[in-house]
Amino acid sequence: MSYEYVLITPARNEAEFIEKTIQSVIAQTVLPERWIIVSDGSTDGTDQIVEKYRPGREWLELVRLPERKERNFAAKVNAFNAGYERVKHLSFEVIGNLDADVSFGEDYLAYLLGKFEEMLTLGVAGTHYIEGEFHSFRDSYINVHHVNGQCQLFRRACFEGIGGYVPIKGGGIDWVAVTTARMKGWTTYSFSDRTFYHHRRMGTAGSSELGARFHYGEKDYFLGGHPLWQVFRSTFQMTKRPYVLGGLCLFLGYAWCWVTRHERPVSPVLMEFHRREQIDRLKHSLFDRLGFGR
Q: How far apart, in Å, do the first and last CA atoms of the chain sit?
């Protein structure tokens, strides 16, 4: 018997893609105990699409929050927490944060639930994703222990142990959660046997692709990233589309925050842990390239 699980989906004006997400979830071989879609002041028909699928599915619930003008990541946490209030009294082992612009195969969630049953130290699980021609693992400077924020499943004990998501306006809420889980001794992992599709280009809501890269560089700084790591990461991204300019914008975003001494919302302890992980990865990567890891 698979673990019981619940899903929460913060959604703000997601009419373009949310139907793909709903169709993916209702086709799962193992359905959630409850799925709360939190419409965060949507004005584009998102609510109507959700309502179309509710009849006959008591486990699917729509929660509507008031309209607001500001768009930021802290608001996404507030929407998630509104959903969590609706499920926290239920009995479940796994809680999932699912974006409203993704889709996946019918055994996707059952596969991840199986990983929690197999690995008792697994605190956060997910998979790599595909976005057009982009593959999140192959085409980025990331490792398998980061779990992509568009679809994160937490063991309930882990989620409650880290205090849930931290509302940071500038972003990085998913990263903080996953890294804090590792710092507290949990295993976090993105598995490669399944993938999900992300239908909106990541980070481009309200900005250009180069603008998004600049913002990612800013985020790398205020989340405490090591400057040496940023040099290597930016250089790697220069080899990917958009060639040179993408990596350059990534570095400039980090450098701008460094020059202006942008406030860092993460704790010194988490930043130290994060930088230690980055330097260890750079050492292992260098040793492998030199043949010492073989």
A: 41
Q: Round to whole Å and give the CA distance between 146 and 126.
A: 9
3-state secondary structure of 58: coil
The three-state (H, E, C) secondary structure of 3-19, written as one string: CCEEEEEEECCCCCCHH
Copy the structure tokens of residue 128: 């790599």
pLDDT digits (tens, 9 = 90+) for 108-139: 999 999 999 999 999 999 999 999 988 888 88
Q: What is the pLDDT of residue 294?
A: 41
H or E segment and range at residue 208: none
Residues in the chain, overall count: 294
Q: Which two tokens stand for residue 279?
A: 């330097």
Burial 167-187 (b: 16+ CB within 10 A, else e): bbebbbbbbbbbbbbbbeebb
Cβ atoms of 192 and 227 closer than 8 Å: no
pLDDT in tens, 43-87: 999 999 999 999 999 999 999 999 877 777 889 999 999 999 999
Is residue 100 helix, strand or coil?
Answer: coil
* Structure tokens that stand for 53 in this block: 């699928």
Please check whether residue 142 is in contact with residue 209, taking contact to mean a CB–CB distance below 8 angstroms. Answer: no
Q: Can you name the residues that pair with 122 across neighbouring β-strands?
A: 187
